[in-house]
Amino acid sequence: MSALLEVKNLSRSFDVSAPWLNRVLERRPRQSLQAVDNVSFSIEPGQTVSLVGESGCGKSTIARLVVGLYGPSSGEIRFARDDFRVQMIFQDPYASLNPRWRVGNIIAEPITTLRLLHDPAAIAQRVSELLQIVGLSPSDGEKYPHEFSGGQRQRISIARALAGEPEFLVCDEPTSALDVSVQAQILNLMKKLQKELGLTYLFISHDLSVVRHMSDEIAVMYLGRIVEMAATEKLFARPLHPYTRLLLETIPDLESPNRERSPMAGEVPSPIDPPTGCAFHPRCPLATERCRRERPEAKPRPDGGRVACFAVGET
Amino acid sequence: MSTAVLEVKHLRVEFPTRRGVLVAVDDVSLAIQPGEILGVVGESGAGKSMTGMAVLGLLEPPGRIAQGEILLAGQRIDNLDEKALQKVRGREIGAIFQDPLTSLNPLFSVGDQLIETIRIHTPIDKKAARSKALNLLKEVGIPAAENRIDHYPHQFSGGMRQRVGIALALCAEPKLIIADEPTTALDVSIQAQIIALLKRLCREHGTAVMLVTHDMGVIAETADRVAVMYAGRIAEIGPVLDVTRRPQHPYTSGLMGSIPSLRHSVETLVQIDGSMPRLDAMPPGCAFHPRCPEAGPRCSRERPAMQHITAACWLHQGGVQA
User: Fold this and answer.
1) Of B297, B226, B221, which Cα lies nearest the Cα of B255?
2) pLDDT tens across B200-241, in order?
3) Distance from B218 to chain A by nearest Cα, in Å?
4) Model confidence, pTM
5) Contact B219, B205 (CB under 8 A)
6) Which backbone phi and psi does B310 adopt, to 5 degrees?
7) Is A203 left (phi over 0), alpha (psi -120 to 50) or beta?
8) Least crowded by CB within 10 Å, which of A68, B90, B101, B298?
9) H-state helical runs in chain B
10) Tens digits of residue pLDDT in A163-197
């Protein structure tokens, strides 16, 4: 089967220089931030691929690049067809819904903008259908966003995304702002919709347990690069990259809480001034001289997927 | 039995509004022993932070303690005036908040803030206070503390700021620390560092902690006992592994089931339908009954109390049918 989305050597940098006058007076050079650095991956139809990592690793930038909210600095993003429809669900359902619009109009907007339906009665019909699909009642279309709880607002965001009849949904931390019991409702809904409508997801999250539950394949990111990518079960069974292992060791595990853990030292370095060589080397227990100098290229994992680390396969 | 560091008895926190009195915390009783970490867990609006704020005497008006008592080492503190309370706060009870960027003063260096706090609570001169502040910063793991002591809060990263927050809470050597979502704003790897630090320091200093958070994982790793709150009340309280492995209250078991597992896959997560009732639309009887899979006629009529068992639910007190 051919991939639905193919991302090749994607990079994106942002100009974070001080204002011109400050640069001149303080003799400072221009500065740029490499948010996404040479990232490649592809997604098959009907699958969920997740990007996971700590803040500043570039996962949300990739989400925005894929839907076209940012343009790439270099590299390419290729969809299976030209008329391919993509929609996005954002993290904060309090910021992503216009507070002055009725929910019905919010959901109808993609339909009218994309000219999917013309007849007002048909649009209204479709809106109430969408509200029911996400577990709200058709009469909720008359209300304003502030009348809903966080979980219900996220349902509205999903209904709005579905209104564009997408094949592909980019979900940027869709449950991070929600309580766990509500998160379970939204995750269940998203899985159900995927099955019923044959959707493909690019799922962004910092929460490894959520990512494990949702994805077929996981890409672990660190400072703009994918350090390891593999099928979910394989990644959890056999994490190879030292960063993946440290991440898996650090998250609190409800089933067997590790009460005497020794957490990994150090913090994520600033992406404005990333370390040389492998960006993870200052925190890595296996780092050698070579890691400080050279940047490891991705090589295949023995059980499928890939990993970018010199130490893997040499031990 | 030694005296509990903190004892909260039948606490009720109310917010009088134009449209009636809202009850944010209702009949909450709990005790924390010296050196113990009590986790208080719940979803937004469950009243967990409000309970912590009531103990600190920091309820935002018009919020007020309407009923109940708060005892610190056997002494009532809920009826103290603001001046007496200020002596207790900081000296006897330390506080750590979610976002240290908002709880630290941006206009003063970290060292000045520590020195000020130390000198308010202990009669020592500026020089001694500075060396104490420096030791505290070293203790919480700030690298190059000699230089960092003169830096301002914005020059620290989130994790480092939270370390400063912990130093600030510990500087008067309080008996009790209220930590309100101390790791929520941090990345997982930093979260683990902060939790380990908090645990180690409290063990070394014998400080008791009330750890307020929404994250069951953090509680499982840190707390000795846990209180699960729902709609302003404690639904279940007990040793942390008992509550996470054998939850007695249907809300707790639903909550545990709704957290995706790191070990095995399930097709669908356990789902508690609906959401927590709003404060102005509290259902009669047990507040959880409209969402409860086990609910019977008794649950919508009468409210289950926390008796000798650890869950406020009719299932364990004569059945839901009666």
Assistant:
1) B226
2) 888 888 899 999 999 998 999 899 999 999 999 999 999 999
3) 6
4) 0.87
5) no
6) -115, 5
7) beta
8) A68
9) 48-56, 82-91, 100-103, 110-121, 126-139, 145-148, 158-170, 188-205, 216-222, 240-245, 250-257, 297-301
10) 999 999 999 999 988 888 889 999 999 999 999 99
